[in-house]
Write a structure and sequence with these properties.
The structure is a homotetramer of 129-residue chains. In chain A, 34% of the residues are buried. Chain A is globular, with a radius of gyration of 17 Å. The longest helix of chain A is centred in the C-terminal third of the chain and has 20 residues. Chain A contains five helices and two strands; from the N terminus they run αααββαα. Chain A has 129 residues and is mainly α. In chain A, a hairpin with a 3-residue loop joins strand 1 and strand 2. Helix content of chain A is 52%, strand content 6%. Chains A and B meet through helix 1, helix 4 and helix 5 of A and helix 1, helix 4 and helix 5 of B. The structure holds a DNA duplex (15 and 15 nucleotides). Chains A, B, C, D: InterPro entries: Tscrpt_reg_HTH_GntR, WH-like_DNA-bd_sf, WH_DNA-bd_sf. Chains A, B, C, D: This is GntR family transcriptional regulator.
Chain lengths: 129, 129, 129, 129
DNA sequence: GTGGTCTAGACCACG
DNA sequence: GTGGTCTAGACCACC
């Protein structure tokens, strides 16, 4: 697992890390027993400060998703995946098709993002946070 | 246009306002010449401080999207023009269908969000920001 | 770099700060990689409020000239590169000579300013802004 | 005399009007006895609100430069010109030559402006307000 | 100790 | 009544 920090997004770095771990769990890329990258690895690959990584891992531990084992690393305790991998793959493929069409219709990523958010916000015609 | 601020998202309130205006422009809900709600209206409807709204509006002005006219309001200057409304509507409908299926397969909103982000990030297997 | 705020000029303090940074870039006193004074330094040396400084620095950041790095300061990102320092020095010397003559002819600073502005406005006979 | 208002300069509109009248006096374009444009004319030609023009004229009257005569207009009372027109013309010509050179050396208007201001600020190496 | 966010409230410029 | 400026001060995120 590799982290990517977007300095200009306005979202605090430690929350971006937490979010990316949660997403990996959601998507089944990480599951119970897997080891997270060491703090040192994250520092090296993403450029954030070690304290920032520690804060993210601590937050994940507090929410019960991971477990730090002294001397051996941080491990995933619980999954967040809610669906069968095959179903996920099918949904993913169909979504990828939709994205391709949207792009062909001339929408750029920000357009697509806006559309997705507005649909998820439930057709109320108001985009959220 | 109505704003919604999510105090728990970690994203600064003024950035949420900026983002919502940009999304409205993307989706065609706002176009050149339209007037944004007055600062006072936003304060009344969303509960944020007036300066927070001013900061968001100023940021939009600096990026050339809107124009403040003293004494008369803040107006949209340029669109973030996406696509033909009909095409948008069709894409939206198909996306809504996909979301329905995903929900029926047991995915919750956070699952769907993670899936969308990972597809938009383009098959690289890393969710972003 | 030291800032000077003229409270009686009618120009908002934050715009004076922005302008002075831009001028320093124009004149080559600041270049890529240089660090701006910290917000606290500016507050101490110029007496303006910290938020006023932050607003100026943020405006510079939005226009792509500087970059704020949390915990370490605000740094110049791009130059507003003008000309070769030697050419600048020569032009400056000749201008200084002209100013001396103008003063000897009895013009005060406001006269000189008016004359410069009218010449820069390009023989149209109308001074601007 | 024609006024030009720059909405984006940050300087209040009424101060821009005051300044332009003062500059016209400095440069000898206006002299004692000349009539300023009527408020209505200024409104028509510059687009500002009538109250804004009135405020500017009132300010000029308070500083003793002009005089409002009920029913006939606003007239210049005192000059601000400090030098002989011929001397002014000579200085202006030499300055225009300098500006031409600066432009040929690749400086744009903002560069020139920065240089002029820094020289006027007296060689101290700090540009002012 | 760095920059950044937000609040509350006074006051100004403009229509 | 519109947007804009500035202040004072509390608190947060990050190094």
């Amino acid at each position: 697992m590799e982290f990517r920090i977007d300095r200009s997004s306005g979202l605090p770095a430690y929350l971006q890390l937490v979010r990316q771990v949660r997403e990996a769990l959601r998507l089944g890329w990480l599951g119970p027993g897997d080891r997270l990258p060491t703090v040192r690895d994250v520092v090296a690959s993403s450029g954030v400060n070690a304290n920032t990584v520690l804060k993210a891992y601590r937050e994940l531990e507090l929410s019960g998703l991971v477990e730090a084992r002294q001397g051996s690393g941080t491990f995933v305790k619980a999954g967040l995946g809610s669906a069968d991998p095959e179903v996920m793959a099918a949904l993913r493929a169909r979504l990828a098709g939709w994205v391709r069409e949207a792009r062909e219709a001339g929408l750029d990523t920000e357009d697509i993002d806006a559309l997705v958010r507005s649909v998820l916000a439930n057709g109320e015609g108001v985009a959220v946070a």
